[in-house]
């Protein structure tokens, strides 16, 4: 069963069957205004924050057949009433002659044909605007004239997303709608919560006269809501009730008579869902956007943004699925995760429990650095603002209020209030920014730490470089009985929550990697003293690691507070962890011999045809001593599931060791594009990485969930571009160090770097996996494989020949 196909030229995925196993979504706009649109037209929209300023009511848990947030009805006269249908298929579920949902870059376009009427709706948020546009074209294909009415519909939520569900008296008593009629029958139908009527007003409007409207759900559906969204009784009347709701479940419906469409005629109607502090003041801009040319321009501007964004790296490899992910969908997903962290998706419904995650966003930033380094830097600045004076980090924060908290650790009495890894990730993020841009002045930017005094002023501040040094010091000083870093509430694996005093080998390796970055940076800055200090810290941790972590065939993952290992042969469950094996290679702590053996153990004990499991065997029952991991059945999520985020780390480790076949195997086996023919098993969107798939201990092996907002996007992108294709920015230029399947003849990559274009051609005449023995730049051979920073504003041709 196939639900669609990739249209690489249009840079779209086209869904051709609306009955996908779960909703497939696409993101529009940004956190400033936007959200996601599902493939049947539903929309989850907020402004600034989904928890505290949510606009549409989108409840993912409702059945797929129910409309969510926003929809469109069309109707034409039939018998004594009307034939009413939705061109989005949902919620009327009429039989269609054609259905296509084009998942594009920042837009979704739904094209459908029902009853001889073709509808094309392009849905997007213009760059920098607070309005969701639906650009609707309706064409009569029927061969006879037809009178068409169009009724766009929005269902609102209270701005406080949780209150909507927790207070069914206060919320409906405060929800109100008002109409603002303009000349020529144009109309703005507003909606607000009473307390915010002068600060945040939602509205639905269009560029066409409106003959009547409805703002009360009960009246729209009719018969005390025994009318349904599939068959709203009010749509059988010639006009809607023109009712301005003063309470209740608010919605907006605008009835447009588009008139008679002769055969072949097309009518264009554009609708706008937005929010403004003051509608009167916003009116000129609302009116300006009613011009079709303005909307066309906004759509072109959006396309130009993506041209520029994607143009920074384009590849041509022997693998079509790799190309479509690296040229389009993977960098797109990286931008989306950078925007939304883990805050708003079909699976993470933005009620405020998550916000912007410190560790998550520090890693997301790595995935956009080649494309929008300035945006990366801005996010880094925000993240550094929630770092504590002692160098540790608050786990997450609300993007509107900048109030941070300690994540799930708050829920467990007596648990440590820090995560052992959070603060270390930001070092990788800053280093990536500096290598991409060489903007060393950023290191001197002063940013306050999170703690505040009684007056609410920051208790301390430091330069970016000081923040980085503090992060190192925190881990340096927070070690347990073996001299290894304390776990805190958890490390990257949120679900292993051991009693205070436990140590994390993951944190040891992340600390090692962070130290390597600091050594590199201080060397670049000429700080010899700090190079010496960090080198000593590195050697010290490496020695502890060498001494304690090897279990005979692989590395253990934790020591609990009693010094007992987890992720060891000595355990019955959770004997081996994937990160336990890949990270010692990434940190450089593993000796060549142990690195090979550890990666072999990872392959033989954790790899499946669908990807690498995070650990095995899965815990089979809740055990408070290990915490969250044992709340899942074996094979699900962190408990033996295929947690995709950790897969690229194995790719990177294999590439560092020179195993091009294995690195590519790991890459290809989780490539969502390659799942397009296996959707019955996979279920999620084949154009983005999901967070997890069920592992082989679970009967539904291969089933994916939690698509879009996952660190898999950033790391898969880095693994592919920087380690398989091997083009790595460093302080002094671009390192060319591919690790590819020996069967490849080579590949090409276009990389913009420090305002110059590098057209890189890698040839592999000897069919090796690793090793570049000759590099020419603009026809001249250079020494080694480091292409220096070249003249700005120019295109340079780099040829790299691999061989023994
Ligand atoms: C998802 C969380 O967002 C992320 O922070 C964590 O590292 C992974 N789960 C693994 O537990």
Outline of the structure:
By secondary structure, this protein is of the alpha+beta class. The protein is built from 18 helices and 42 strands.
Q: Roughly what is the average pLDDT, rounded to an integer?
A: 97
Strand order of the largest sheet: 1-2-8-9-10-11-18-15-14-13
Sequence stretches where pLDDT stays below 50 over 5 or more residues: none
Count of distinct strands:
42
Strand content: 25-35%
| Ions, cofactors and other bound molecules | 1-deoxynojirimycin
How large is the radius of gyration? Answer: 28 Å
The helix fraction, in percent, is 25-40%
**Secondary-structure content class:** alpha+beta
Number of continuous helical runs: 18
Q: Give the termini separation.
A: 45 Å
Mind summarizing the main beta sheet? 10 strands, antiparallel
Write down the overall geometry.
Answer: globular
Describe this structure in words.
It is a single chain. With 804 residues, this protein is α+β, with helices and mostly antiparallel strands. The chain is built from 18 helices and 42 strands. A ten-stranded antiparallel beta sheet has the order 1-2-8-9-10-11-18-15-14-13. A six-stranded mixed beta sheet has the order 19-37-38-42-39-40. Helix 13 (578-587) crosses helix 15. It is globular and about 85 Å long. The structure holds 1-deoxynojirimycin (NOJ).
């Amino acid at each position: 069963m196939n639900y669609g196909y990739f249209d690489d030229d249009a840079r779209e995925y086209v869904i051709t069957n609306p009955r996908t196993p779960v909703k497939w979504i696409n993101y529009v706009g940004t956190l400033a205004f936007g959200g996601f649109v599902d493939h049947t037209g539903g929309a989850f929209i907020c402004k600034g924050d989904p928890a505290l300023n949510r606009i549409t009511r989108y409840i993912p848990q409702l059945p797929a057949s129910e409309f969510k947030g926003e929809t469109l009805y069309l109707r034409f006269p039939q018998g004594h009433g009307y034939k009413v249908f939705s061109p989005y298929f949902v919620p009327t579920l009429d039989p269609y002659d054609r259905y296509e949902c084009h998942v594009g870059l920042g837009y979704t376009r739904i094209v459908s044909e029902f009853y001889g009427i073709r509808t094309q709706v392009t849905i997007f948020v213009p760059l920098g605007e607070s309005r969701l546009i639906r650009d609707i074209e309706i064409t009569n294909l029927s061969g006879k004239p037809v009178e068409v009415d169009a009724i766009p519909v929005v269902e609102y939520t209270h701005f406080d997303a949780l209150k909507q569900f927790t207070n069914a008296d206060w919320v409906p008593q405060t929800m109100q709608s008002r109409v603002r009629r303009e000349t020529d029958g144009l109309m703005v139908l507003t909606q607000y919560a009473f307390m915010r009527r002068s600060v945040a007003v939602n509205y639905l409007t269009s560029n066409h006269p409106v003959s009547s409207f409805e703002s009360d759900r009960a009246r729209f559906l009719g018969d005390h809501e025994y009318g349904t969204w599939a068959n709203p009784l009010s749509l059988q009347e010639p006009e809607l009730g023109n009712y301005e709701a003063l309470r209740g479940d608010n919605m907006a419906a605008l009835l447009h008579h588009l008139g008679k469409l002769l055969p072949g005629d097309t009518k264009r109607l554009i609708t706008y869902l937005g929010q403004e502090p003051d509608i009167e003041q916003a009116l000129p801009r609302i009116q300006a956007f009613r011009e079709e040319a303005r909307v066309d321009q906004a759509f072109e501007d959006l396309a130009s943004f993506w041209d520029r964004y994607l143009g920074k790296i384009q590849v041509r490899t022997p693998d079509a699925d790799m190309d479509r992910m690296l040229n389009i969908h993977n960098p797109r997903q990286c931008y989306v995760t950078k925007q939304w962290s883990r805050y708003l998706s079909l699976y993470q419904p933005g009620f405020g429990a998550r916000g912007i995650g410190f560790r998550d966003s520090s890693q997301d930033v790595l995935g956009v650095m080649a494309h929008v380094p300035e945006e990366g830097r801005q996010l880094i600045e925000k993240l550094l603002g929630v770092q504590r004076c002692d160098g540790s980090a608050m786990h997450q924060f609300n993007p509107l209020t900048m109030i941070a908290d300690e994540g799930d650790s708050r829920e467990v009495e007596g648990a440590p209030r820090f995560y052992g890894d959070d603060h270390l990730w930001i070092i990788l993020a800053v280093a990536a920014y500096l290598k991409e841009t060489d903007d060393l002045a950023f290191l001197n930017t002063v940013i306050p730490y999170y703690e505040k005094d009684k007056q609410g002023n920051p208790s301390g501040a430091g330069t970016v470089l000081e923040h980085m040094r503090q992060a190192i010091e925190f881990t340096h000083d927070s070690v347990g009985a073996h001299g290894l870093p304390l776990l805190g509430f958890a490390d990257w694996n949120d679900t292993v929550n051991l009693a205070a005093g436990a140590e994390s080998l993951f944190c040891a390796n992340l600390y090692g990697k962070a130290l390597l970055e600091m050594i590199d940076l201080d060397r670049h800055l000429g700080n010899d003293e700090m190079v010496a200090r960090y080198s000593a810290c590195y050697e010290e941790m490496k020695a502890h690691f060498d001494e304690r972590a090897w279990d005979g065939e692989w590395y253990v993952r934790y020591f609990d507070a009693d010094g007992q290992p987890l992720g060891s042969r000595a355990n019955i469950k959770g004997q081996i962890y994937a990160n336990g094996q890949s990270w010692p290679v990434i940190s450089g702590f593993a000796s060549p011999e142990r690195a090979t053996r550890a990666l072999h153990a990872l392959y033989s004990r954790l790899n499946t045809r669908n990807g690498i499991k995070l650990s095995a065997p899965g815990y089979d029952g809740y055990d408070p001593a290990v915490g969250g991991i044992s709340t899942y059945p074996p094979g699900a999520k962190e408990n033996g599931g295929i947690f995709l985020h950790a897969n690229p780390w194995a790719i990177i480790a294999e590439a560092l060791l020179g195993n091009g076949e294995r690195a590519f195997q790991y890459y290809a086996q989780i490539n969502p594009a390659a799942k397009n023919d296996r959707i019955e098993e996979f279920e999620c969107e084949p154009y983005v990485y999901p967070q997890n798939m069920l592992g082989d201990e679970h009967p539904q092996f291969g089933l994916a969930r939690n698509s879009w907002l996952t660190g898999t996007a950033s790391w898969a992108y880095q693994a592919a571009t920087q380690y398989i294709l091997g083009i790595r920015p460093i302080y002094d230029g671009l390192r060319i160090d591919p690790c590819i399947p020996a069967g490849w003849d080579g590949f090409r990559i276009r990389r913009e770097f420090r305002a110059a274009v590098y057209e890189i051609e890698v040839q592999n005449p000897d069919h090796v996996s690793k090793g570049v023995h000759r590099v020419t730049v603009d026809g001249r051979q250079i020494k080694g494989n480091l292409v220096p920073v070249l003249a700005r504003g120019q295109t340079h041709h780099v040829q790299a020949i691999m061989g023994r």
